[in-house]
């Protein structure tokens, strides 16, 4: 049987406790022996050298120190027996080792406590090291899955048997999660690609329609095409593992406002924006997130106003405002859950639906190190704040 099979957490803990107890005993024994009077060194030297508590209770008079005076002897009583050879007069007889004075006992206990505390601190750090490695690998796994970075790999030959097994399970789980993420992206990409064929047929079937109807239907098809392009671009960015890059926020918001205005949508851009605001993000992912926020504002508020401002702590805030009824404060976080959207009447509460726009927008923002926050505006309506790092 190899030693690595015996290297378990139980064995490590057992060895650690034994080493700490022995070290505490040896340190206390060495220090206390240095405090013993020379006349009693021979007696105290008989203290046990194995791990144990010092002899004697700390609140009682130790044996060998100032014995109580003998009772008065009557003249008709025989004299007390003489002590055995080699035992000093006045020394009480006993079978155990001599007791230490209370001061030395407390010194012994205090030294043992200090050594045990120091050993426990070092031991806790030693035993917790595998947990810290696992926590770091879990954080790296989250970043690897969200941003397309390389997955962390734990050393399966390091640590106790329990940690080695945990490392093997973690590595298999990481690989499986990456496969599931890739499969999900591939399925979405295939769906987006396959939709091109029916959209092309729809364009051909628009020819017999009157001009007004043909133009309106063509705009809808163009919008679907743009969404498919954005989806495929986001998937390409994730697959390639591209890093965030500086983006001119003002130019992006202006392009979005122009695109929606061409489609006849009431989307405006604040004309008081700062001259230069750059954010760090992936272009396709940022555009897709903003498009989802604008669609949400148009659907529930009837209009959308785009603006931006410098945030605090090295962040930039991209704002999408609407004039709708807002969201009840207790539901502001729930609307980010997939497949959940609010009912038309606020008093009806949430209901299941195709509420994916906000969930996708938040996920894309978090992949670039940002966050998405919703809040009701004091004057009415809803404000979506997309907070991103400065580029």
At the fourth CATH level, what is the homologous superfamily of the largest domain? Histidine kinase-like ATPase, C-terminal domain
- The whole-angstrom Rg is 39 Å
Could you tell me the mean pLDDT?
Answer: 78
Structural class: alpha+beta
Enzyme class: transferase
Membrane topology: Multi-pass membrane protein
Organism: Pseudaquabacterium terrae
Domain HAMP: 125-182
Written description of the protein model:
With 391 residues, the chain is of the alpha+beta class. It folds into three domains: 145 residues, no CATH class; 47 residues; 147 residues, Histidine kinase-like ATPase, C-terminal domain (Heat Shock Protein 90, 2-Layer Sandwich), CATH 3.30.565. Helix content is 51%, strand content 12%. It contains ten helices and nine strands. A five-stranded mixed beta sheet has the order 2-4-5-9-8. A hairpin with a 7-residue loop joins strand 6 and strand 7. Helix 4 runs parallel beside helix 5, helix 5 runs antiparallel to helix 7 and helix 9 packs antiparallel against helix 10. The two termini are 58 Å apart. About 4% of the residues have low confidence.
List keywords for this structure.
elongated; 9 strands; nucleotide-binding; ATP-binding; 391 residues; 3 domains; alpha+beta; transferase; two-stranded antiparallel ribbon; 10 helices; HATPase_C_sf; 51% helix; cell membrane
């Amino acid at each position: 049987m190899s030693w690595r099979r015996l290297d378990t957490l139980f064995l490590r803990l057992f060895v650690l406790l034994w080493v700490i107890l022995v070290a505490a005993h040896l340190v206390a024994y060495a220090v206390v022996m240095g405090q013993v009077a020379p006349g009693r060194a021979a007696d105290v030297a008989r203290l046990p050298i194995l791990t144990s508590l010092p002899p004697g209770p700390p609140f009682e008079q130790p044996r060998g120190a100032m014995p109580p005076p003998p009772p008065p002897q009557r003249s008709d009583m025989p004299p007390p027996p003489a002590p055995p050879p080699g035992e000093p007069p006045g020394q009480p007889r006993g079978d155990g080792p001599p007791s230490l004075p209370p001061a030395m006992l407390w010194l012994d206990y205090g030294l043992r406590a200090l050594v045990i505390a120091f050993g426990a601190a070092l031991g806790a750090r030693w035993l917790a090291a595998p947990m810290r490695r696992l926590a770091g690998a879990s954080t790296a796994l989250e970043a690897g899955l969200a941003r397309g970075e390389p997955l962390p790999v734990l050393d399966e030959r390091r640590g106790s048997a329990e940690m080695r097994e945990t490392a093997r399970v973690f590595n298999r789980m990481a690989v499986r999660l990456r496969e599931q993420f890739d499969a999900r992206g591939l399925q979405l990409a295939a769906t987006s690609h396959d939709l091109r064929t029916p959209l092309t047929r729809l364009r051909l079937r628009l020819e017999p329609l009157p001009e007004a109807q043909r133009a309106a239907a063509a705009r809808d098809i163009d919008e679907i095409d743009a969404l498919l392009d954005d989806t495929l671009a986001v998937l390409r960015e994730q697959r390639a593992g591209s890093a965030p890059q500086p983006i001119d926020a003002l130019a992006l918001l202006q392009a979005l406002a122009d695109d929606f205005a061409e489609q006849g949508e009431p989307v405006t851009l604040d004309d008081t924006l700062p001259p230069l605001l750059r954010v760090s993000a992936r272009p396709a992912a940022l555009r897709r997130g903003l498009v989802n926020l604008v669609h949400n504002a148009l659907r529930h508020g009837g209009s959308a106003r785009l603006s931006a401002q410098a945030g605090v702590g090295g962040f930039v805030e991209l704002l999408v405002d609407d004039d709708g009824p807002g969201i009840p404060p207790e539901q502001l976080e729930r609307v980010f859950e997939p497949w959940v959207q609010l009912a038309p009447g606020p008093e009806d509460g949430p209901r299941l639906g195709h509420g994916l726009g906000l969930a996708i927008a938040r996920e894309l923002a978090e992949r670039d190190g940002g966050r998405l926050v919703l809040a009701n505006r004091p004057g009415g309506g809803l404000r979506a704040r997309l907070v991103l790092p400065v580029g």
